[in-house]
Amino acid sequence: MKIFTTILNIIFIPIIAWFLSHIFAVFGFFLAVTYPGWWLVFPTQHLCLWCRIRKLSVCSFSHSFYSGGLVLLFSIFSVGVVFAESRILQKFGFPPTPKTVSIVIPTTGQYLLGQIYPVRVEIFGVKYPIATVQTDIGFDAKTLRVIDISTNGSFAKIFVQKKIDNEVGYARLSGGLSDPGFLGEQGLFGIVFFQGISPGFAKVEVLPSSMVLANDSHGTNVVKELASATYLVLPEMISPEEGEQQNQIDYSGKFVLGEKTAMGEEGTQIKFYEESEVMGMQTKLESANREKTSFADVFFELLGTADRIILSFWQRIIS
Q1: Cis peptide before 240 (omega within 30 of 0)
Q2: SS3 132
Q3: What 3-state DSSP class applies to 313?
Q4: Whose CA is closest to 278, among 166, 193, 176?
Q5: If exposure means fewest CB atoms within 10 Å of the residue's CB, which of 29, 186, 226, 289 is most exposed?
Q6: SS3 state of residue 43
Q7: 8-67 pLDDT tens trace
Q8: Three-state secondary-structure class, residue 80
Q9: In degrees rounded to 5, what are phi and psi of residue 74?
């Protein structure tokens, strides 16, 4: 019987201590501050930790301050435990980085037949640093064609893919930047230059194969929303003067449709792709085999979320 009791103590005492550490990480500081007041209001019902530890028979008001100090020390230690625990869980991907990013393009527009116009591909809602972006653009190849994809003014500094297929209506731009990644409410990733080749409505959409990977050591895809748009190509032809002016524009240079970019000021980009490389259309994500969610995964995800809430709470209090 004694051995059984010892085994239960070995199992349950650490569990209780771990549970209390999370409780004290949130409420311990406030309990330490109110400890002396608790002694004044309920002197006979007051649980004095100092007297319990020192085994004192008479409790005084000063002992309540000592008890409050002990609670404060345990609370600071508890916050440290929660912080260390959250770091360990993050290494294993708990909780996963939330999906907050939207890849957007201009929603509407109308252009003359033969006119070249820019479509800015931007990301919004970056709440956590991102490292890699892949944007796959699908378009109506009967109405539009892609002239070029510009990276001037992009927050990304390293580009590995730029692929265009005007036969099926597909364009891809992939790139990113090194640690610590990009963090901001809005960022320009690239500019796709379309030309209207046939009058009518043309749909342009960001395909589901697009990705925005977080800089969280797991490469979590944080895309929440993908945009689509419909552009109108008017039957009126662009004038010869405007056509000649567009032919003189260097779309890959520092000037894009007369607008100077800030690339010269922000730094140099590194590009590994071949400009002439062409790729077929890929509109569907490759279906990965999803592993069954185990009880341990659910528990660690909830624990990681709780740790993040506790640390965010103290961060707001301090700031």
Answers
A1: no
A2: strand
A3: helix
A4: 166
A5: 289
A6: coil
A7: 767 778 888 888 888 888 888 888 888 788 777 777 666 777 777 777 777 777 877 888
A8: helix
A9: -65, -35
Residue ranges of domains in the chain, CATH in brackets: 2-91+295-318 (no CATH), 101-271 (2.60.40.680)
C-alpha–C-alpha distance, residues 277 and 319, integer Å = 50
Q: CB within 8 A of 191, min separation 6: which ones?
A: 118, 119, 120, 121, 149, 150, 151, 152, 153, 256
Is the distance from CB of 158 to CB of 270 less than 8 angstroms? yes
The answer to whether 204 and 117 are in contact (CB under 8 A) is: no
pLDDT per position as a tens digit, 221-272: 999 999 999 999 999 988 776 666 666 666 554 433 333 333 334 567 888 7
Distance from C-alpha of 178 to C-alpha of 191, rounded to nearest angstrom: 21
Judge whether 158 and 233 are in contact, CB under 8 Å.
Answer: no
Side by side, which strands form the sheet with 223-226?
Answer: 144-150, 186-196, 116-124, 101-104, 223-226
Q: Can you tell me which residue has the tokens 């610590």? A: 180
| Residue 275 near residue 162 (C-beta atoms within 8 A) | yes
CA–CA distance, 246 with 306 (Å, rounded to integer): 56
pTM attached to this predicted model: 0.65
100: number of Cβ within 10 Å: 16
